[in-house]
Automatic annotation (TrEMBL):
NCBIfam families: CehA_McbA_metalo (NF038032). It comes from the Bacteria. Signal peptide: none annotated. This is CehA/McbA family metallohydrolase. InterPro entries: PHP_domain, Pol/His_phosphatase_N, Pol/histidinol_Pase-like. Residues 124-186 form the Polymerase/histidinol phosphatase N-terminal domain.
């Protein structure tokens, strides 16, 4: 559905001075943005001051006086003075506050554009560190890096502290996701979505871990078990088992290496056993490093908006894929109206569609089910995008991996992977 533009006109009289005049308009379902352009035309060259605001069906959404006549409200951003957020259907109104007007009155016009909501891909780094723990980056430095790499979001996963969740730059266009990396002597986990996911990070045994993770979930956190086979030290490897509460598995941590391959194999085993665990990635960047860099890898999310809640809930639905850099590769894995992370009702007659972009000649694309790699394709010279359709063939899930040869290490490394699209029995 295309954006709909409506034109409204109203005459303001001297008798309206000191009062509020409403210009009502109807907002249908599934609108993601409202744009309003106000024009005031006095009928005489005398003082005319008309203030402007906006109300939705339940409350006043903002007020800008006579300083702003070009207004915008969306799910995740708005003109200063106005509240971003949900756009409920029903009666809205432009508020005209008639402060000063001559006997001649004025003519006011409002052009209102209703933009339908569409989910969009956002990208960012879910795992990194700042000076609030053992990282070297200040928030000013991190914000510049995030904007330079065109991140839409960043996860604030400092170790066992939450001060970062109250210190990030509030006016940045980057969405900062409150988080904490629960850092124990037997493994790490990221707790996303709430500024204070737990009151005390100290754990001694698995019952402590289970209690803490339940506490975090009760507060609304999403939990990712991090780098289960981390090769930087035994205390970084996850040794608490997988019967504790968690939502996601960080299968890709920093540059691709053997410990990530082990995490990927673990995840595949979980999927084959019927578990629907979401795969995520993050750079785990602490400081300047030739290979560990922000956005290596990048997690892409098909999200209703760039708010924290929208991004995290979309990840939790599995509407995400991982690429080795912010530039891609990118991919779309769908089955009719369903996408990666979704459960398709019929797995016998379902047609799957895959589109991969930003690939290079020689890249290897693998189609994978619970039975392992089913088909392999090589990107040919001149191909920057690649498409494939195939039948679900009774499989419980399908997912995609993209591999590339890197001369620096003379090896094939993972450069892209999807979450699965699932099929009911």
């Amino acid at each position: 559905m295309a954006a709909e533009v409506s034109h409204y006109a109203v005459e303001i009289h001297k008798s309206d001075e000191g009062h509020f005049v409403e210009v009502p308009f109807e907002v249908p379902e599934n609108i993601g943005e409202i744009r309003i352009q106000i024009t005031v035309q006095p009928h005489a060259k005398k003082p005319c001051i008309i203030d402007v605001g906006l109300t939705d069906p339940a409350q006043v959404r903002g007020w800008s006086g006579s300083t702003k006549y070009d207004l915008r409200i969306a799910l995740d951003s708005a003109t200063p003075g106005y509240l971003a957020g949900d756009i409920p259907p029903g009666r809205w109104a432009v508020i005209l506050g008639v402060y000063t007007i001559s006997e001649a009155g004025a003519h006011v016009e409002a052009d209102i554009t209703l933009v339908p909501h569409q989910d969009a891909w956002v990208k960012g780094d879910l795992h990194l560190h700042t000076v609030h723990s053992d990282g070297a980056y200040t928030f000013a430095e991190l914000d510049e890096i995030a904007k330079a790499r065109k991140f839409d979001y960043v996860g604030l996963t400092d170790h066992n502290t939450v001060s970062q969740n109250f210190s990030y730059p509030q006016e940045s266009p980057v969405t900062y996701i409150p988080a904490m990396e629960l850092t124990t002597y037997h493994g790490h986990a990221n707790l996303f979505g709430v500024p204070i996911p737990c009151d005390d990070f100290r754990v001694q045994d698995v019952s402590d871990v289970e209690r803490l993770l339940k506490e975090a979930k009760s507060r609304g956190a999403f939990i990712a078990i991090n780098h289960p086979f981390d090769d930087t030290g035994p205390s970084c490897q996850w040794q608490w088992g997988y019967d504790v509460p968690f939502d996601w598995l960080e299968v890709w941590n920093g540059p691709w290496r053997a410990c990530n391959a082990a995490s990927l194999a673990l995840w595949q085993d979980m999927l084959a056993a019927g578990k629907r665990i979401v795969a995520v990635g993050g750079s785990d960047t602490h400081r300047e490093h030739p290979y560990v860099r922000h956005g290596v890898p990048t997690t892409w999310v098909k999200s209703p908006s760039r708010t924290v809640d929208a991004i995290l809930h979309a990840i939790n639905q599995g509407h995400a894929f991982i690429s080795f850099s912010p530039e891609g590769p990118t991919l779309e894995l769908t089955c009719g109206d369903h996408m990666m992370g979704d459960l398709v009702p019929n797995r016998q007659q379902s047609e799957i569609a895959l589109t991969v972009a930003h690939v290079q000649p020689g890249d290897i694309i693998k189609l994978i089910s619970e039975q392992g790699v089913a088909e392999t394709y090589t990107v040919q010279p001149g191909e920057q995008a690649w498409q494939k359709q195939w039948s679900a063939n009774g499989k419980r899930f399908w997912r995609v991996e993209i591999w590339r040869h890197f001369a620096e290490v003379n090896d094939m490394l993972l450069v892209g992977m999807s979450n699965p699209i699932y099929f009911a029995k």
